[in-house]
Write a structure and sequence with these properties.
- The structure is a homodimer.
- The first copy, chain A, has about 600 residues and is α+β, with helices and mostly antiparallel strands.
- Chain A is about 35% helix and about 20% strand.
- Chain A has 19 helices and 27 strands.
- Chain A is globular.
- Chain A starts with 10 loop residues before the first helix and ends with a helix.
- The relative contact order of chain A is 0.09.
- At the A-B interface, helix 17 of A face helix 17 of B.
Chain lengths: ~600, ~600
């Protein structure tokens, strides 16, 4: 099983651990400590050994930060986690506040104990964050102090060891470009920009640059480590020695020196007098400090691998197509099973459905992992955007409701992420109308053509316009980038209200996932992955336009569509999409499933 | 007449003036000089005395810059002016290059004569521009030198005097808020931001803040001068003494000290030790230098009047509505006349039509000026986005073509800006299809509802989506802000592909003007002004949404619409708009015009 439905965290955790942490803070000569959620690799998913925020506070969400003092502790979370944070903490021990509107810096500016020495771990925070926090603390006469040892690590006596999964080559047949070619290409860019080297700290960037994959964190095959790429194309890769095999050394060849990750700081000495690109969005204050201490000149700027990694090459796009056909067959089997179980009056609950779906995916030998913990949400739980089912919250799927299932798989040739909203019995007219508004937005973003230079932010309103016209909206982005057998959430591109200057380029994979959520009632989301297509002329037109090819292949529940609300073009899109689903997935599934799929893909 | 159709500029200008300028450069101990288009007030329209770029080069476009050396001169213009710049300059004397891709800074970085001393007038350039240019020059060992006297002003012996139009009060009945209330409101914002004062250099900001209007530049009633607003609500207004009347002094009262503009620098002395907000987007390097020299601390940031000025109050919105009814009647009379003249086989040319339209507008006693020189373009001239008809380019309106007329008026209660594309005879199927694509985009942007916080950049694609789908686009913004009896192009809001972080707020007036241009064939644009409406609930919805109310009232030519390309909702929008035009404008025009209007506004 790649998922667990146990309840983790909770108020007892802080009752047990905060006293230990406070003793460590005092022992370190500090008055308080900053506890960010992020670890030194800035990943979405952390190894258990790096779940410091959860250890200190009992809050298990995927984003947040805390400030812990001798007599007070404050936990900052964003809107999607407010309820969860309140449920997982004791208000006598921990005050929950807003991460976005206030955050640690806002709180320090008005509430920091005067003169307090507040420790931070420079490996866990970006240099910009440290500067903001230091300025805020200074406004109250307090100071931010780089801690030699993280007080949490000192207090966490039963901390599990860091994982040491073997790092394995990612074959050229799947990567589409050798790491030598990637290094040569990027080295030229470094040289052109008059840079001597780049420090690569993002595990996804390491994975892409060296064509390697790891297994240290759940759901993403990321190799935790660091790398330095030089302007001559040579490189060093810093990994824990336990992860390195002869096969990996052979794959990396002579131009890539494999070194112990513990020697990273020592390795900086070789960069004295050199100009080194470091990305403040992914590298820590520690990396900036240590490079400068080693005599290097730090050039702040984007990780040079971020954009080439986002633009998938034809081999990667072909892999994504293949992974989506395979994944679509698993999802189709699941949807067929679900319909049958509901029709037969079987009791189906969120955990049971998630387990069943994982089973269908796992039947493929190619499945390496799920790409995230499935969001399996029935009725009112569907309105919780980042819902994660546990044994405590598990609900039955009831007739007259909607079931929302957001899930994905990690295959060696591609990463998938798909959401379907399914009619359980006959949903209400309102549910079907709002589903159709969401679907109209999804179709607008699937069909759009656009010129080179267009950003996701410029397209976002296309997906929202029909909801807006009805006085509705959703409080999340419309689309995120997706890696190639890598992270399911990757930049630099995105489709959202947030400012993002990255233009959409051919080969970029993005999700298209508008939604609608009625609190305590139901949730709707329609999500496909789509890849940006090459510029192509349009009959009768004058300019080449980019566009999208939909990768995800699974039926959209026709029973939730109000056909009369779709234009002729929108109906044609749904029919065309379903014809493609039936044609590609149908031959892969069992005859009874295929019969069900044919009905599910019938013309509107 | 508010317009002239004379050919200005041209190669003879530089032949005459460049030698004079070169002597002045040498006399000033310089090797070259930077000649920006902008004057010290950063206006779109300049008084003739400040048309320095036109005087030096003969190029009369509204944007550009030149670098003049002893043996070489380079003129930088953007794409819309490339042809005009080539036509107005002698290639032996002046090299025309790209303003956007290269610009003076890009050129200096690779081409600056080594060691050259290049003069600039710090009153004409922003501090950021000066820094960029200085860094670029330094890369070649050249240096940028602040010139004590602008060599152009020294060489321009027959320079006309600066205009000294009287500055007059803008009545409270039109402004909707007294200048005392405006000053008090902004002063509180300054105090809250811990600022002691703000330097206001933008003439539009002066006009809005003090409820005054001037007459120094064509098409915009701008008072050229400067002001300082203090955090206690008091202010100084610096104007040439010839512009000040007892009536103005009475209007301004005791809290606004009127001083001679020549004393501005001396006035800075009172700001020693104070923190003063200055906007680098509108204030010159000179203002920054002189304030710092006077001992003030400069706080770089947005002009505090920019956002409140953009959000029209209810009195200003009511004024805009009234001005648009009046202006719509004039445009309707013109369109009626044009139809009749074409039907009667009369010879109509671009200048004749522009003069006729000005005549209809001037028949209103309220017209103060045109808001810009009308773009009256027939056939192929319509494809020149910033076309300005002269006696040399004047074309006849021919059957089977499109006539594009973009024009507007300045009325005491509002500024108008409207474009209509008119069928002359029967336009081709392609013309009508592309017109309809443009119209569909216009309608999408007119009908959209959107949540607070949405920027114009997020809505831009709505206006382009139908053209994009056909492989077409237009190379200008979709909408610009418009002042209230002020500039016809005002920020900070805008609807375009350019990054703009300003959210659309109730009361903001923007144009909605998608277009299509087929080079050497025809041009299409549909432009209405629309005002952002207050957040309002939508039946059955959950969230309040902003929207637009269309202000412009004039028929859209039904003969160019391919009805079958419009959805039912789009047809309903056109019919509803035309019903409103007929209802509001019909009663104001003569019976024969009204009869014509009724037919022009018939249901599709």
């Amino acid at each position: 099983m790649h998922q667990s439905f146990d309840v983790k965290g909770g108020p007892k955790v802080a009752r047990r651990n905060l006293p230990k942490l406070r003793r460590a803070i005092t022992a370190a000569g500090l008055d308080g400590v900053l506890v960010p959620h992020e670890d030194e690799y800035q990943n979405e998913y952390l190894p258990e050994a790096n779940e410091r925020l959860a250890w200190a506070t009992g809050f298990t969400g995927s984003a947040g930060a805390a400030l812990v003092f001798a007599d007070h502790a404050v936990l900052f979370v964003d809107g999607r986690y407010t309820l969860q944070a309140r449920a997982q903490t004791d208000p006598e021990l921990i005050e929950v506040r807003d991460l976005v509107a206030e955050g640690p810096a806002g709180w320090l500016r008005t509430e920091a104990p005067e003169g307090a020495r507040i420790g931070y771990d420079p490996r866990l925070s970006s240099p910009d964050a440290v500067q903001r926090l230091a300025e805020a603390a200074a406004a109250r006469g307090a100071s931010l102090v780089a801690a030699a040892e993280n007080p949490i690590d000192a207090a966490w006596t039963d901390r599990p060891p860091l994982p040491k999964a073997l790092v394995v080559p990612h074959p050229l047949a799947l990567a589409g470009e050798s790491h030598a070619d990637k290094r040569a290409r990027l080295a030229k860019e470094l040289a052109d920009a008059k840079l001597d080297a780049a420090l690569v700290t993002s595990p996804a960037s390491l994975a892409w640059l060296f064509n390697i994959r790891g297994g240290d964190v759940a759901h993403s095959p990321l190799p935790l480590g660091a790398g330095v790429l030089h302007a001559d194309g040579k490189a060093e890769l810093f990994l824990a020695p336990e992860k390195v095999t002869p096969e990996l050394r052979a794959h990396l060849g002579n131009a890539v020196a494999v070194r112990d990750e513990a020697e990273l700081e020592a390795g900086f000495a070789a960069l004295a007098g050199r100009t080194v690109r470091v990305d403040p969005a992914t590298a820590s204050a520690w990396a900036f400090d240590r490079l400068e201490a080693a005599g290097a000149t730090v050039s702040r700027g984007p990780d040079p691998t971020a954009l080439p990694r986002a633009c998938k090459n034809p081999v990667e796009v072909a892999g994504a197509r293949a992974a989506h056909v395979r994944d679509g067959a698993a999802l189709t089997r699941f949807l067929h099973w679900l319909d049958g179980a509901i029709a037969a009056g079987e009791a189906v609950d969120e955990i049971g459905a998630a387990v069943k779906l994982e089973g269908f995916r796992s039947a493929s030998e190619d499945l390496k992992d799920l790409s995230f913990e499935s969001i399996s949400s029935a009725g009112p739980n569907g309105a919780v955007v980042h819902y994660r089912v546990t044994t405590k919250t598990n609900r039955k799927l009831k007739r007259g409701s909607l079931y929302l299932i957001d899930s994905g798989g990690q295959y060696p040739d591609g990463t998938t992420d798909v959401t379907r909203t399914i009619a359980i019995g006959r949903p209400s007219r309102e549910m079907r109308e709002r589903f159709t508004l969401v679907l109209k937005g999804h179709i607008a973003l699937a069909r759009v053509r656009f010129p080179a230079g267009t950003t996701g932010g410029q397209l976002d309103a296309l997906a929202r316009q029909f909801l807006w016209a009805a006085g509705l909206d959703y409080d999340h982005g419309t689309g995120h980038g997706v890696g190639s057998y890598l992270g399911v959430h990757e930049g630099p591109q995105g489709i959202s209200k947030r400012l993002n200057e990255t233009a959409l380029r051919p080969g970029m994979i993005v999700s298209n996932e508008p939604g609608y959520y009625k609190t305590e009632a139901y949730g709707i989301r329609v999500e496909n992955l789509q890849v940006v297509t090459e510029p192509a002329p349009i009959d009768g037109g004058e300019r080449e336009m980019l566009g999208f090819e939909t990768l995800t292949l699974a039926p959209i529940d026709r029973r939730v569509i109000v056909k009369g609300m779709l234009s002729a073009e929108e109906r044609a899109w749904v029919d065309g999409y379903h014809a493609r689903v039936l044609e590609t997935v149908g031959p892969l599934v069992e005859p009874d499933v295929c019969g069900w799929l044919a009905a599910a893909c019938a013309r509107l």
